[in-house]
Specification:
By secondary structure, the chain is of the alpha/beta class. The chain has three helices and six strands.
């Protein structure tokens, strides 16, 4: 079953399909309570990773995010790394950012360094529309 949440001014669009193994998170992530906002997605990912597809892709197209979102993203990537390490799935993380957004590029580089044992691609794009 596809898990989707529409974007708001403070929360990102989320699109996760266990049928394709692709998770996309796009937009701004500054929810009042990140744990509560991401709880449903986290549970879906945990369930998916019990019996995942051969390939799993996480695409992050973030314009801005707060500290509590950073913690969620770190925990999410840890879950995927663990599944990758035990051979349940081959994971690829794509960090997509606007080419002139040095803060988002730096954040992507920090995550790439933290998770250097799984394929992690940084992709600069000219511009994208979040609405």
């Amino acid at each position: 079953m596809i898990f989707q949440i529409d974007a708001t001014d403070k929360t990102p669009e989320i699109d996760f399909s266990p049928v394709t193994g692709v998770l996309k998170i796009k937009g701004i992530s500054i929810p009042e309570d990140s744990k509560e906002f991401y709880r449903g997605l986290y549970m879906e990912i945990e369930e998916y990773l019990q019996d995942p597809l051969e390939w799993s892709v996480v695409e992050l197209h973030l314009e801005y995010f707060n500290t509590s979102t950073t913690l969620f993203l770190r925990d999410l990537m840890k879950k995927y790394r663990q599944a990758n390490q035990i051979g349940n799935t081959n994971v690829k993380i794509k960090w997509i950012f606007e080419e002139d957004d040095l803060d988002m590029e730096d954040a992507g580089l920090e995550f790439k360094d933290l998770f250097d044992d799984i394929p992690f691609e940084l992709q600069a794009v000219e511009e994208f529309d979040f609405r």
